[in-house]
Amino acid sequence: MLEIPEIQQRILHALDSGDSQEVKKVIKKVQLADIAEAICELPITKIIHFFRLLTPQYGAQIIPYLSNACQKKVISGLNAPELKTFIDKMYSDDLVDLLDKLSPRLATKVLAATSPKRRVELNNILRHEEESAGGMMSVNFVQAKEKDTVNKTIKYLRENHKDFEFVNTLFIVDEYGFYKGRLELKTIFFAPSTAKLSEIMDSRQLTVHSRADREQVISIFQKYDISILPVLDDQKKIVGFITVDDVLDGVEEESTEDIAKLAGIRPKDEEFFNISVWKMFKSRILWLISMLVLGTISQILVILFWNAYHVPNVNNVTDGKAFAAVVLFAPMMLILAGIGGISATQSSTVMVRAISINKVHKKDVYKVLGKETLVALWTGLILVVINIIRLILVYLVEFDDVESLALWKAIAVSSITLLLGLVIGNVLATLLPILAKAMKLDPTLACGPLITTLLDIIIVSLLFGFGLAFF
């Protein structure tokens, strides 16, 4: 199996020759997914040149494997007639996946390249919810009537097999179009040529409704250990089918979504490098703000218990190091450590997931660090403002005013610690999984307890260290 750099070199050599046959030789020796990964790292001029040397069939097969950003470059770079040659050869479900990821302008360009018949197929899929069986299904399937003979069916398949995405299974209907069963291709070839399909088909009704949830579809595949599942409408007519490949994609999306929710992140459909810093910021900030505000309850409880335990310097002294350490810093230590741990967990969760599905590599470390640092700075600045406001309110209740210089020093120390803790936490949460992967260790070992423990140590050190400097 060739490595990506070697594939790139072969592609570049073929492009320099300008010979489509050379490009074809490379494609025949390499998996299409690897071809797509290799060309996406080339300059846009090389990518477009590569597609112009491809046959429509190969181009249609490679486009679905491209990253979202690369797909946009290709569609923007190809003119309308060139794009149409590839679009005509793409299967409808691949086109739907492509349209979902494009901007309105590029989606319009793609739709303009499709035939009226193809648009009907696309609408049949797009009218369903993305996370439903209808949104997962393919519509290019072989349908045969139960009264047809084996000989007639084989002849039809030989003449029309290129029009269908999947020919290993035929879906059998009656004269009114109602679904009756399914038939494997191998069964047809070993059956008598005069036998009717109704005599040899599998009539067990294992189907799913087009409105069924994605999780229900996954559950059916797991329970019955099947490779294909027909999708029916309200009239019990077949409208598409779902393969185990579609389910694997669904499982990946479901697990990614669940993992994101567990880490307090609003799930995003885009790949890591296609998500803007602004979207990353929005997906994380809500939980962090909530935890900071709710953490004030912990701070108040500590203060109340300080009073209940008659801790010295709580009510009498409002200055000095002892007062700062016991009364001001100790109660807020829990909050700052918690916020830093949550933020780092969010970053490490995204990073570990991206590494596990092969979306981030060692060479991407600087890009990743840049994005995570910006997200940490943005969230940190917002949280610092909220932290100042909440501490003013807490101190107004606790000390009746905020005129004491010691209180403002405490606010400054906590805000600096909060901002630095977030930045350091996100950087560590990004680097440690990548470092673990480079050392051939499980990236998950570098998150969770490890990262939160490290952040606790760092934030406590920053808080009391800056406290000594200020007091």
Jot down its keywords.
mainly alpha, CBS-domain, Tetracycline Repressor, domain 2, three-stranded mixed β-sheet, elongated, membrane
The N- to C-terminal Cα distance equals: 63 Å
CATH class of the largest domain: Mainly Alpha
Count of discrete domains: 3
Largest sheet: 3 strands, mixed
What's the Cα radius of gyration? 30 Å
**What is the overall pLDDT average?**
85
Query: Beta-strand level of the residues, as a percent range?
Result: 5-15%
Tell me what the CATH architecture of the largest domain is: Orthogonal Bundle
> Which runs of at least 5 residues are low in confidence (pLDDT < 50)?
none
CATH topology of the largest domain: Tetracycline Repressor, domain 2
- Following the backbone from N to C, one meets helices and strands in this order, namely HHHHHHHHHHHEHEEHHEHEEHHHHHH
**Shape summary:** elongated
Number of strand segments: 6
Tell me the number of helical segments per DSSP (H or I, 4 or more residues long).
21
The CATH superfamily of the largest domain is known as SLC41 divalent cation transporters, integral membrane domain
Structural class: mainly alpha
